[in-house]
Amino acid sequence: GGDGDRDNNGPPAGGSSVNRQDALSQTSPDDDTIDLNPLHQTLIDGESQQVGFIDETTDPLNRRLVSSVASLPCQFADYTLDAVIGRGGMGVVYAGRQQKLDRQVAVKMIRSGALASDQEVARFYAEARSAAQLDHPNIVTVYQCGEYEGHHFFSMDFVDGDDLSKMTRDGPLEPKAAARYVRDAARAIQYAHENGIVHRDLKPANLLVDQNDNVRITDFGLAKSIDTESSLTATGAAIGTPSYMSPEQAAGQIENAPQSTDVYSLGAILFAITTGRPPFKAGSVVQTIMQVIHRPPPSASSINPELKGDLATIIDRCLQKSPDQRYRSAEDLANDLERFLIDAPIEARPMSATRRAWYWLLGVPIVGAVLDHRVVEPTNAHHWVQRGLISALLLLALGMILVAVPSSVWYKNRMPRQLTIAAGVEGGAYFGLADEISELINANSKCDAQVIASGGSTDNLSRLLSGQAGLALVQSDAVDSAEISVVAPMYFEVVHILVRGDLGISTLAELSGRKVKVGSQKGGSQRIARSVLQYAGLSMGDIELDESPLDPLVAPSDTADAVIVVTRPGASLVKELLAGNRYRLFDMRDAWQFTIDEPSFHVYYVDDDHYPDCDLPADGIRAVATTAFLVTKSDASSALVKLILTQLFETDRAEKLGIFDASRAAHWKELAWHAAAREFFGPYRSTIAE
What we know:
Structural class: alpha+beta
Number of strands: 21
Shape: rod-shaped
Number of helices: 25
CATH architecture of the largest domain: 3-Layer(aba) Sandwich
Number of domains: 3
Helix content: 25-40%
Radius of gyration: 46 Å
Distance between the termini: 73 Å
CATH superfamily of the largest domain: Periplasmic binding protein-like II
Strand content: 15-25%
């Protein structure tokens, strides 16, 4: 546009603006009337109704201004003002029509109207002059500026459309469309730079898109001449919109490369309209400014994955902290965006991963402090890395101490030089398994493992607790000490109740007064026999107790009326007792009820597979069974436990030794596991759950 007159004159000589403080000083708060220009009343009321910028509670003068019933539209000089279409920190913009030229225009006025200060008036006319010097299709054209009845104004193109801020409220723009808008804006800004004007307040709200989808730059309220100093902004002051201002602008230092600050802002706009958020936005203006100055900008592709590639590289180039690392000019930015739009190779090169990592690492407070790099508001990730670095340093120091101190956890968890395994009666099931375990340890470590014979499960537990042994095989009822931890369950042990075939015993209660062989107190069979007899209503005093050892290497005695042996199915001792036909296996018909009362037991059927040629019924004999466990002290070496479990369960040895495989062993969840055993069986429990 621009076919009308341009009046670029400043305020009239002598200044006609009314000083706000003087106006207030002449008005008593108790005065119900005020001699107010009717036009001023109309403009104030029209803006308060449509925009709501008046604070009726803080300004006694404004409380009187809103009492008028006048409203828009109204006549203002050669313009009819129809509606308020926008406002900023200093100005308010009306949509209207210029009567003489019969054209739709936008009219901008100082927001405080006739009460504007001299500095506000001077800055207002500086904006008008800056925009009036520029005649570019992508910059809003200024037609006229002046004063009417105490109100300073200028008229300009009316752009029928939305700004980029409104266009992205529902989500980011498509990358190509966003690139085109910023490309055209960059060309317009290059034109402004060539004419000596730096915008200094570029943001999505100041880029309008008209009905023809063309971008138009407006609001040169903070524009500055490149070649002149301005007294309107104090030296070192940070002016602009914090989320979109460059680091040097935020620090109040843009004298050396003023054009580069607009390049940064264009990159920040491109970031915002393609990701839906500005590069920096904190809880307060001060926090945002500190982030702009000190924090590395996030990668646009980290927020919007669709931006991976050239457009993200262009944005990164614009947002570099140092002006020297950005595009040399807005024209260079526009040219690279044009290359992106036509799918040609761009000139900007992505930041190397090493360099990006280095800049990111500088954001870690402890690293920044060492390298004299100021860090403000580090991210959560930076805090975590700092904790990690500090933890690593502490762990390193701690590691050195632990290596040096023999009583350290490392020292305790190392493989022992010697190990004794309490193995039970020589020739028994425990002894054979313990011998196999000792051979595995000796073959796969420098530990010297030895097996010692004992009286059985109870004796094994006693030797382990006293320190005479480092490993022991025990029955489940022995795993009840806080000092004991389970390495692994090994196999089931059946409670074999053998009774003389010629006595016709059909219930356990019929054992009362009879001679029952249960083994010595050092063995586990006597403890379990006591539980079985108690279930039948008998005590150890109700029977004739035979405590001679149940030694598999000694021929069994045939003098007892009954024998209770707790051992794994198929044991040679039981085979010999059954082979002579003097004894038969007692069928425990109420085994299910026993297991309910004693949860550590379960029902077990003994059949011909366990004892062939012993005339057992085809469907087996009902019995109850417990479990044999390999146990150790709770503070035993983790390395030892891991070695044993690895050798037993990660090979085919479990099947050869007749013990549970790892998956079945993992079924026991509520045990007092050794920590290393719990870790070892964890994956097998997950497999079971799946």
